[in-house]
């Protein structure tokens, strides 16, 4: 990094997280910030959370849909880290004032690994062989950037705009499921909200996880046994406010529910 102080900006994002306050877009306040700069900032941001006692329990993929990629002007996804303090139990009630700033819910398929995956050279088939179980998942994305005015560098630096995540029961007998054809239906406050299928993420959820393993391999970061991997949203993001109740159902994988309070 030439002009960007990753440690300083990481601290600013960390303070934003802890104080539940947004900051102006980094792409507006830092000239010529690159994606590589943003990943260095993300690593600094993460190191402060780990120093607080948080532990990495997985990774996430973001910006998987073509619509979002076009919005951000990129042709590839991004990634972030999941910690133990970000995991919410199924059917739990999330306190927005405690955990979040401007949350949005998205329905995903989560993977739990039974062995390490170290890129490059990881294929979709490698991912499937290395998967212990699949789970329905609500990722509650959140941005520390004012009014979600993000470009790719902003979301990368901000841990891929991850807030918290909620997973349903593990399904180990998944080998006969066609992941790209799995359909999710999402309901908000008892009303149908959206639908999508597995092909929405890089054509196949396991392809998205393979991309993550290969991309992280360039940074010498492995996907590890027992980690949870979020493969990307199957549906449009939906804002959440106190009182909202979300439910998702995926044929063959079950359901996941989450509720929000002040």
As for the CATH topology, it is Fumarylacetoacetate hydrolase, domain 2
Shape: globular
Instruction: Round the mean pLDDT to the nearest integer and report it.
Output: 93
What structural class should be given to the helix and strand makeup? Answer: alpha+beta
Count of discrete structural domains = 1
- Uncertain stretches of 5 or more adjacent residues: none
Query: What is the C-level CATH assignment?
Result: Alpha Beta
Look at the structure and name the CATH superfamily.
Fumarylacetoacetase-like, C-terminal domain
Q: Compute the gyration radius: what is it? A: 17 Å
If helices are DSSP runs of H or I spanning 4 or more residues, what is the number of helices? 8
Strand proportion, as a percent range, falls in 25-35%
Task: Give the helices and strands as they follow along the chain.
Answer: HHHEHEEEHEHEHEEEHEEEE
- Largest sheet, described in full? 8 strands, mixed
Count of β-strands: 13
CATH architecture: Alpha-Beta Complex
Assign a percent range to the helix content.
25-40%
Oligomeric form:
single chain
End-to-end Cα distance, whole Å, is: 40 Å
Short recap of the structure:
This protein is α+β, with helices and mostly antiparallel strands.
Question: What does this molecule look like?
Answer:
By secondary structure, this protein is α+β, with helices and mostly antiparallel strands. It has one domain (6-261): Fumarylacetoacetate hydrolase, domain 2. Helices cover 27% and strands 31% of the residues. The protein contains eight helices and 13 strands. The chain has helices at 6-19, 26-29, 35-51, 66-72, 96-99, 124-129, 152-157, 205-217, and strands at 56-62, 78-83, 87-88, 93-95, 104-113, 131-141, 162-167, 183-188, 191-197, 228-233, 238-239, 245-250, 254-261. The strands form two sheets. Strands 1, 2, 3, 5, 6, 7, 10 and 11 form an eight-stranded mixed sheet that branches. The chain has a five-stranded mixed sheet with strand order 4-13-12-8-9. Strand 8 (183-188) and strand 9 form a beta hairpin. Helix 1 packs across helix 3 (35-51). The protein is globular and about 50 Å long. The model has no long low-confidence stretch (mean pLDDT 93).
């Amino acid at each position: 990094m030439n002009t960007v102080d990753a440690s300083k900006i990481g601290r600013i994002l960390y303070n934003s997280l802890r104080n539940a306050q947004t900051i102006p877009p980094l792409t507006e306040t830092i000239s010529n910030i690159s994606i590589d700069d943003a990943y260095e900032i993300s690593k600094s941001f993460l190191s402060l959370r780990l120093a607080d006692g948080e532990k990495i329990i997985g990774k996430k993929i973001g910006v998987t849909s073509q619509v979002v990629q076009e919005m951000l002007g990129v042709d590839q996804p991004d990634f972030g880290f999941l910690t133990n303090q970000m995991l919410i139990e199924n059917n739990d009630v999330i306190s927005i004032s405690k955990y979040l700033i401007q949350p949005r819910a998205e329905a995903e398929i989560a993977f739990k690994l039974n062995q390490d995956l170290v890129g490059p050279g990881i294929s979709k088939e490698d991912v499937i062989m290395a998967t212990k179980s699949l789970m329905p998942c609500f990722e509650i994305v959140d941005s520390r950037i004012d009014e979600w005015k993000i470009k790719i560098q902003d979301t990368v630096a901000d841990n891929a705009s991850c807030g918290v995540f909620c997973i349903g029961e593990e399904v180990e007998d998944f080998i006969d499921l066609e992941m790209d054809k799995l359909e999710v239906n999402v309901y908000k406050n008892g009303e149908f909200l959206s639908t999508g299928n597995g092909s929405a993420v890089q054509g196949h959820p396991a392809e998205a996880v393979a991309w993550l393993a290969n991309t992280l391999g360039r940074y010498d970061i492995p996907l590890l046994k027992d980690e949870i991997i979020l493969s990307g949203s199957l549906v449009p993001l939906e804002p959440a406010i106190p009182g909202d109740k979300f439910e998702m159902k995926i044929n063959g994988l079950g359901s996941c529910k989450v509720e929000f309070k002040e």
